[in-house]
Amino acid sequence: MGHRIVYLSDATLDLNRIYAEIAAAAGLPIADRFFAGLIAFIRALETFPERGTVRSGRIPGLRIIGYRHSISLAFVVRGDSVVIVGVFRRGQNISDEILAGRL
Length: 103
Description:
There is one protein chain. Strands 1-5-4-3-2 form a five-stranded mixed beta sheet. It has one domain: RelE-like (YaeB-like fold, 2-Layer Sandwich). 38% of the residues lie in helices and 27% in strands. Strand 4 and strand 5 form a beta hairpin.
């Protein structure tokens, strides 16, 4: 049985912001293709959720996984759900303080 993907509201805001930045810099068709791939990548966590690097810190079980060397996805596996905590651009600091306020 697959896991269910759950996006926290901050993660949805992250996705919207990143989409807008890519669209402004490269155009809508490129942003659409990039995001189709990113969403497919996230949906693959339904089948194989325990990927990425487990990060020790304030959030037990926090995992970070990269997408195309430009996005870092922060998530936790809770029961039958994969909770997307945040989506960050390359080089963005993913501190415990930023993430802890999201859960």
